[in-house]
Design brief:
heterotrimer; A alpha+beta; B alpha+beta; C alpha+beta; B: seven-stranded mixed β-sheet; 20 helices; 28% helix; globular; C: five-stranded mixed β-sheet; 35% helix
């Protein structure tokens, strides 16, 4: 039951290792999911590939298109980046909500996405932001929209040998704002029972563009087109809010589990959508 | 201090009541305090238990051959490696420690393996193949009592159980007095309702851990985190067929217990593995094992009926309390029944308890076992009666409060008690008169716990330099070493830091009952005082001999032997260190003793006030203000008393709002980790205000009452009352999780 | 056995060890380096009893592999006070009785020290959220929060 540990110094080397390895392969970035699964005997990888020694994986950089966030950038490093926090407060706070201060020192956006949990906090925020990822693999590189990565609980669309080396967040739009809220029973340390992210932009007081995403209410995080449509063209008047809540609840396809019921999740998705839209709207107005 | 027979009310203390630093403080802030898992021995093996994934299954076959083929593996044990022919509680404990014919709950140990490293032991455990024949299971208390429920352990019921009940009902209790029918007829309003609470875990942060060695000569050594190492010794000896006195058990520092470390789980397993390998074996549970296999509380289903007159007088009360206690008898249903109405002076009261077994881990004590659930049901109905009759909840409780001389709901008359004093303090507390914010609700509740004495043995050895070493046999679970040092210092008349208290091993003292029942500051404290008086008695004898007068003519005061009056003669008082420095020549070492079973543990009451806020859209609740008022009898170390009050309240908040055992349809525990077993985190809680009431317990030399447990009795009800008042709907099931609150609001809105 | 050799710095001292790639930093600290101050309360990053800092960053030692700390600098509770004097947090924790059983105390001290190094004047809410990953079952947190706040005030006054 030996586990091989590798710490390649380039993505080429990582891809080559991952492509030729047999058995269960896991990538190690922050490790806050991988190590839990290892310790709980849920998954003991045959091969563990640590990506943190690769140059650039700890970088947050502004590009012509927006932001590039390396695979091994931790939540704490994102929160401590004032410009990123100013441009995408919803993405940063969604990441920041994951776990404790200690978890924030390690957990990464890429890990949160690749773990494939429907309740991953950062994923709805990335989807609402219109983020994509850069995938490297044996067949070369490709860009994939964040919403196309998770395919179900614990599953992703990445193929054998493929891994994400960068998260690509677009530039902040003029008069744009984003926000993320989740419902948890305690104030910290829980997994989202429902998560909701909204990113929108305004012309005057009117929403001209919006993306609403939900987490923990379906097998994967959802981009809810109907909810986005419900608020575009509005200034979040009462009627719009009711339509938004209705559209958000209607998109839910949750399960009953130890964290919540179908009824509860469906209802709270509507409540959160309204609260999040309001925050994003206020941020867009500046 | 230290004159026997002095009026407690008039006692003046020098050390007792002050707040010195704890003697184990530096060890615990530097990381050098040694807890259960912090012990290592040369040649040590590491053990892992193999546990049943099934709630109820016949064990058909255990095949360990693949594990045994690993070079790192040194031994595997199963039930065959333990004593045969056990009866009674020894048999039950063995059945729980290592499954026999059947696995009775998810997490039940069926085998264990020892290997040269923790990782090898984990790998080996995965290679032990157990063939099960799955049997029907039941985990819910009401379902376990139903006619069609699977019989879990036939023949377990004792003769207290009335005929016609399901075989899963294993014990029955009924008590009370008066005639409730007459009482209910006199009431202006009678409310009857049903309540449920889920099982909660003590949630100590330190998992069970031990290091054990047992040689072929039958001599054993155990190091473990436990609330009672003498009990570990007794149980290990029985389960391994060894002699008690040949097994020496040392209690480590204990990382929380709250009742849960009064039971024995892993020590006999480690000893059995050690016996087979002739090497020391370390066995440490992981968190999931702690949740799956160690004792949570009982889950309950309760029906309570109370009648009240318009002026607030309670005319009658009755309750039926069904407790599910896992696969073994022992759910504390008699405590639930007996505590339920204890705060009130009732002419007509009746209470019934059922002990019900189900396919869950054996319940263990958790801080006032059984009492908090009772208070939840009873105090919820009293709150509802107050609301309906437009009465102040504290005035109503004062009107009906038990006092000295009241015949308690469970039988005996109360001696001096402090319930009225706690209610008066609560009524006058600024919290109670503060305005209630919009969307908030306020709740109050009383709570009761018996407290306990129990077998106790201590020794107090004086040193030549006039310092003192106290050995006690009750593991320190809440700062008791500090309070022991204070009491001894008070008696001897020396400084606090001239006394050292040690938790002695089982070879050093006579039998000590486990640290439970809020008994340590009371019983070990009383024992320490009496041992100190035994020592000062001996010191007085030495002084008398030096002065050439009768021993009876010498008394001890403030660290000095003094002649008791002019008849005794004119002598200068002799300080302690002057008597000890040559004690070897004047009669030998001076050691004070106390060995007995003190029975004067005074009962204890508390009143809590809570403000809670409810988000009506999400069902999220937060506790925004909390005040604990409790009778401590006499607070030896007030800071640690406050700590007990705050800790009990915090655990109660968790129990009320979020903590619960969640079983799937497959009978498996769904939330065996701190991620989904949600105990309160720092950001969940407000500061917790405390008021220490001191109504002395006549059964203790200084008036001490235990304080550890009563603090968790009122919170469930106080919070339920606050939340119900905030939400405008009565919550009758714990935990009051957000989905349950929304469901209740929904039901109310839809009539 | 496939052990990996790792060189690292712990509380300022150079250390070397061999470990299985599956062993966590916590396993290594406790079982190989005899530093048992960090505790395993859960093994899943939920309780914070194993809090240490790695290159100055607060982490759970149970969520990091031993092989990952090659070349890194680790600080544990054993390194908080290196001479006769206790760190002010340690003194205040004793004074306030901010510990009962003491099992969570090492992790809380490491976490609180990390907070005060970043934020010398935290609000009560900031302290509570920073420490939300450090479970304490005994105290109800009241005395812990007060001890941290008072330590912060004392350090501010002294500097």
């Amino acid at each position: 039951m030996h586990m091989q540990y590798h710490s390649p110094e380039s993505f080429d080397e990582a891809v080559s290792l991952a492509s030729k390895s047999e058995g269960t392969i896991r990538f190690l970035a922050g490790g806050t999911d991988v190590l839990v699964q290892l310790r709980s005997d849920i998954v003991t990888p045959d091969v563990l590939i640590d990506l943190k020694k690769i140059d650039g994986t700890k970088d947050i950089s502004r590009t012509a298109e927006g932001w590039k966030i390396g695979t091994a950038v931790s939540g704490a490093e994102m929160s401590e980046h004032p410009e990123l926090s100013r441009d995408w407060p919803g993405v940063v706070e969604a990441m920041d909500l994951i776990g404790s201060t200690q978890i924030q020192g390690r957990a990464t956006l890429v890990g949160n996405l690749c773990n494939g949990s429907p309740a991953a906090d950062s994923v709805p925020a990335l989807i609402a932001a219109g983020a994509a990822v850069n995938v490297v693999g044996p067949k070369g590189e490709r860009q994939v929209r964040v919403e196309d990565i998770p395919t179900g609980p614990g599953r992703t669309s990445l193929e054998k040998g493929e891994m994400i080396n960068e998260i690509l967040i677009p530039a902040k739009r003029q008069n744009g704002g984003d926000a993320y809220l989740r419902f948890i029973p305690r104030t910290e340390m829980d997994i989202a029972v429902v998560g909701c992210a909204v990113s929108l932009s305004l012309e005057g007081d009117t929403i001209i563009d919006a993306r609403v995403a939900l987490g923990a209410v379906a097998p994967t995080a959802l981009l809810v087109e109907d909810a986005s449509k419900a608020i575009i063209g509005s200034n979040l008047d009462d009627g719009t809010m009711a339509a938004l809540a209705k559209a958000a609840s209607a998109a839910c396809n949750p399960i009953n589990d130890k964290r919540g019921t179908i009824k509860f999740r469906t209802h709270v998705a509507g409540v959160l959508a309204q609260r999040v839209a309001k925050i994003a709207y206020d941020r867009a107005r500046g | 201090m230290g004159v026997e027979g002095q009026n407690i009310e008039e006692m003046q203390f020098k050390v007792v009541g002050t707040r010195p630093n704890r003697p184990d403080g530096i060890d615990k802030v530097t990381g050098r305090a040694k807890f259960g898992a912090d012990a290592y021995a040369a040649g040590m093996l590491h053990a892992v238990c193999v546990r049943s994934p099934h709630a109820h299954a016949k064990i058909v076959k255990i095949d360990a051959s693949k594990a045994e083929a690993m070079p790192e593996v040194k031994a595997v044990v199963t039930r065959a490696d333990f004593a045969e022919g056990l009866t009674g509680e020894d048999w039950n404990i063995l059945e729980n420690v290592m499954a026999g014919e059947k696995a009775l709950y998810d997490g039940h140990t069926v085998a264990a393996v020892a290997a040269t490293s923790p990782i090898a032991a984990r790998d080996a455990a995965k290679l032990i193949k157990v063939e099960y024949e799955i049997l029907p299971h039941v985990t819910d208390v009401d379902a376990a009592m139903a006619k069609d429920a699977p019989v879990i352990r036939d023949g377990t019921a004792d003769n207290s159980v009335p005929e016609g009940l399901h075989a899963n009902v294993v014990r029955y209790h009924e008590s009370g007095h008066g005639d409730v029918d007459i009482g209910f007829a006199e009431a202006d309003l009678v409310i009857e309702d049903s309540f449920q609470t889920e099982a909660t875990h003590q949630g100590y942060i330190e998992p069970h851990a031990c290091l054990a060695q047992l040689g072929s000569d039958g001599k054993g050594e155990v190091w473990c985190c436990t609330q009672g190492h003498f009990n570990v010794q007794k149980v290990c000896a029985a389960l391994l067929g060894a002699d008690s006195s040949q097994i020496r058990v040392t209690a480590s520092e204990i990382g929380g217990g709250f009742g849960g470390k009064t039971a024995v789980f892993i020590e006999p397993v480690a000893l059995a593995l050690s016996k087979k390998t002739n090497r020391p074996v370390k066995l440490v549970m992981n968190r999931s094992e702690v949740f799956r296999a160690t004792g949570p509380t009982s889950s309950t289903s309760m029906d309570v009926k109370i009648g009240m007159k318009k002026d607030g007088t309670i005319t009658a009360a009755e309750g039926v309390f069904r407790l599910q206690g896992g696969a073994f008898p022992g759910a504390p249903m008699e405590f639930t029944a007996m505590c339920a109405f204890a705060p009130y002076n009732l002419e007509n009261v009746n209470q019934i308890g059922y002990d019900v077994i189900a396919n869950r881990p054996k319940q263990a004590a958790y801080r006032a076992p059984g009492s908090p659930m009772a208070a939840f049901a009873v105090e919820s109905i009293i709150d509802e009666l107050c609301n309906k009759l437009g009465l102040d909840p504290i005035e109503v409780r004062l009107k009906n409060a038990s006092k000295e001389g009241t015949r308690s709901s469970y039988g005996p008359r109360f001696e001096r008690i402090g319930l009225v004093e706690t209610l008066e303090e609560a009524k006058n507390h600024p919290h109670y008169s503060a305005p209630i914010e919009e969307g908030h609700g306020r709740g109050v509740s009383c709570g009761f716990w018996f407290n306990h004495g129990g077998e106790t043995a201590v020794t107090l050895a004086l040193s030549e330099d006039g310092t003192a070493a106290l050995s006690v046999g009750t593991p320190d679970i809440g700062g008791s070493r500090a309070s022991m040092c204070q009491m001894v210092a008070e008696e001897l008349g020396i400084a606090y830091d001239k006394v050292r208290t040690t938790i002695a091993d089982t070879a050093t003292l006579g039998y000590n009952e486990v640290s439970h029942g809020s008994r340590v500051t009371y019983a070990s404290g009383l024992a320490a005082i009496k041992a100190a008086r035994d020592a000062t008695d001996k010191l007085c004898s030495r002084a008398a001999a030096r002065w050439g007068i009768d021993k009876e003519a010498v008394y001890w005061e403030n660290g000095f032997a003094k002649p008791s009056g002019s008849n005794a003669g004119e002598f200068d008082p002799i300080p302690l260190e002057d008597l000890t420095k040559d004690m070897g020549a004047t009669g030998g070492p001076i050691v004070g003793h106390y060995e007995a079973t003190p029975e004067g543990a005074g009962v204890s009451f508390a009143t809590h006030i809570v403000d809670a806020k409810v988000d009506r859209e999400t069902g999220q609740t937060s506790v925004v203000r909390y005040t604990v008022v409790q009778d401590a009898g006499k607070a030896i170390h007030p800071t640690y008393v406050e700590g007990q009050y705050q800790g009990g309240a915090a655990q109660g908040i968790g129990w009320a709002l979020n903590e619960e055992y969640i079983y799937g349809d497959d009978g498996r525990l769904q939330n065996s980790g701190f991620l989904d077993y949600r105990i309160p985190v720092a950001s969940d809680l407000p500061m917790i205000d405390t008021v220490i009431v001191e109504v002395p317990n006549p059964g203790h030399p200084y008036g001490v009452r235990g304080v550890g447990e009563t603090s968790i009795c009122p919170p469930l009800a106080a919070i339920a009352n606050a939340v119900s008042n905030a939400a405008g709907v009565r919550l009758k099931q714990l935990p009051m999780s957000p989905p349950r609150i929304l469901e209740a609001l929904d039901k109310q809105a839809n009539g | 056995m496939g052990m990996t050799h790792v060189s690292t710095t712990v509380n300022g001292d150079r250390e070397e060890f061999l470990c299985d790639p599956r062993e966590t930093l916590l396993d290594v600290l406790r079982d190989k380096l005899a530093l048992t101050g960090a505790k395993e309360g859960c093994g899943t990053g939920d309780c914070g009893a194993c809090s240490v800092t790695v290159d100055g960053r607060l982490v759970c030692a149970c969520l990091m592999l031993g092989v990952e700390v090659e070349g890194k600098s680790i600080d544990t509770v054993e390194g908080i006070s290196t001479d006769e004097e206790l760190h002010p947090l340690q003194t205040k924790f004793i004074e306030y009785a901010a510990l009962q059983c003491g099992i969570c105390t090492p992790g809380i001290l490491v976490a609180a020290k990390s907070l005060l190094e970043r934020n010398p004047d935290p609000t009560e809410t900031e302290v509570r959220y920073w420490l939300a990953g450090n479970l304490c079952r005994c105290t109800g947190y009241d005395k812990i929060i007060r001890a941290v706040m008072d330590t912060a005030a004392e350090i501010r006054e002294a500097t």
